[in-house]
Specification:
This protein is mostly helical. The protein has helices at 2-20, 28-35, 38-63, 68-73, 78-91, 94-102, 104-127, 130-153, 164-191. 75% of the residues lie in helices and 0% in strands. Helix 3 (38-63) packs parallel to helix 9 and helix 6 crosses helix 7 (104-127). The protein starts with a helix and ends in a 19-residue tail after the last helix.
Length: 210
Amino acid sequence: METVQTAGGRAGWVLRGLLGLPAILLVAPVREALEASMAWQMLAEFPLLLAFGFSASAVLAHRHRERPAVDALTHMGLAPLLGASLCLMFWMVPLALDLSRLDAGVNGAKYVSLILAGVAMQHGLRRAQAAILLFFGGNLIWTLATVGMLFHDAESRLCANYLLSDQQLTGAGLLTYALVVTVALALYLRRQPGFGFFVPPAGSDSDGRR
């Protein structure tokens, strides 16, 4: 019991630490350095904003009981995971990246939407069953791999504000993320009874005998 409590306490401190990370974006030179590079923006800033939203949602869920309306809206994780997927797909579009670089309002919308996507991911992943996780996880892997190959293999710049070498580095990073998500999803499902698709009846042994 003490070990479980210690692990839970460490997880809580990690979540609280992640809450402070986006504060670095308030420092103008740091923000400019991140957003001057496509690779830093998509491979570092995006995950940072998602992690902030995810952590904030997890901390609030631990401290406060959710209202029935929220629970109904996020039932089985379908709506929040769909929203998070659409948000990520939108900000991978080269034109969206260009607009966020040129317009402060669009850039602000990027921050808010990615933070909300992190909140949605926390709600969705907490409730989703194996089939739903496999569907949305597979969609994310496909998106990361497709956009990664497009960025890496394109012979011309897809974003007016970023160099071709930066674009190719971003593509390689997205392909790496696709591999990481694939491995993480496979390991998670492997730890579930029946890979999350079949739960043995109570009292059954490994051979299915009672």
